């Protein structure tokens, strides 16, 4: 049965560079295992489902990675070490596309993709805004480039936090593109982070595809545009089930629920909690996800919403979401230690 | 019949902010109409086909926008004025999604998308590379931020060209996301640029979807992930036909052909030239498009390929492609003026 997670993994071979990512994860985990640093795995951005083995077209999910990248900054602010698992716009190495090894190698050398979903810190300066912030000073003594004075305070603040996160070894960034890469990397990350037990949060903000095309039904080459096409999509297994019950049974697991129809939102969130037995669903509507979320727990549900003043002042809802999650995590740890 | 371009336009209403883009195009065109500046319209990046009216999922085409964004820089180097029509990662304003005006307005206020396909100049500094190039200097006299000395030469060069393009009014950037937005904007741009006649190049590097889902077959809300799905895709009309014969009959039109199977590549390019009667097809394989292209004209075809030395030195194939296109454009203008 295609919706079974074990069968899904066994029919989609391990991505080529998973071992490298696992090594990075093990180093990161070892650095934080002794001590009391709290750790969060943040997933961010959408996943792709290729329509062709030589992928020209794919089915994609809505996500710029705003939620995940900004939350990462706020978790760092609160002292957490963060594994930031984010989306590359295109498959880095065409590594999961089931090709002969020599063809993959060829692709790997050739394709130099540089566009991604938003990343913490750099997210504040995407596109040409960055170039507009720079002054070119050409004198007889040489050329220098400085950030224009009005932009210094804001950039200095971001730069300070970015450099500090790197220096403390508190930020590890890993990437995925396809839903296959995402699922493989997520399982590895869970297995490696599991020893952190209740000190670890899983903050699953990525917009993961619910559908996929089985490899044996995919076209090898670009589909010719000579006639209408029908695409059959199968269900991706719901990975929260093994994640909560088997992979990180002692961690604090937070999932997200995005809907476009508000009548379904809370029921769907509650349904997920009942089914997977994790701690928290952060439910949001596509139409206003930057301003309003509903926190749904086993016990209750409540709304976090930015006021117009907060929005106008440039505040981000993720600051409040993360504060809330950190408080809940604190209680959870206290509960587990029998201190409360 | 769905493959008819007139019917396609009449069944997909004009995007909300098309008028604004048309005003910008008219200003740009007026600035360059008197004089002898040559003008190129570069299209870049992929298009999306939403699967839902409230779009969470979409079908996408492979394209980081490398070809279009780098070619734009080389056209500016050669003195051309450039309209750079590029892809926003997500629909800016959900403007083509056939919703009631008040719902659209709501989206427009809320969604602040900032991730795009590559743009000229800023493409050299995407992601966190930019933050790694900055030094933070905090002294008692205050804080300043400078570009690290080893990065000054490269950034200075890019910054000089970027500021010069803006100051001369030689670069106009417009954006699209869905295939509907792309087709509407392309037609408007052609109609406004048409008076430039043979002084104008159309350099159609965008990866435009060949398929779409008719609005009346689209789901209104996010498709539930409870059972497998089938998506029926219709053919997008081949827009080169009216473009070449009706919209810009005197311009120098260049199209691109991407394939993954090399046995089809040149035949497909030749077939397009015979069908649409334009001037040049630049044919490339997904596997090596950064290193090798075949220029296919009515008369002949020849290969442009980077040597290993050129690649290692960081040269880009777009420099050679643009040089070649500019030479051909020169000949074309001379022919038309009866000077050759």
From TrEMBL, chains A, B:
Domain DNA/pantothenate metabolism flavoprotein C-terminal, residue spans: 197-309
Annotated protein name in UniProt: Phosphopantothenate--cysteine ligase isoform X1
InterPro entries cross-referenced by the UniProt entry: CoaB-like_sf, DNA/pantothenate-metab_flavo_C
GO molecular function: ligase activity
Gene: LOC107221461
Annotated family: Belongs to the PPC synthetase family.
SUPFAM superfamilies assigned: CoaB-like (SSF102645)
Organism this protein belongs to: Neodiprion lecontei
Alphabetic keyword roster: Ligase
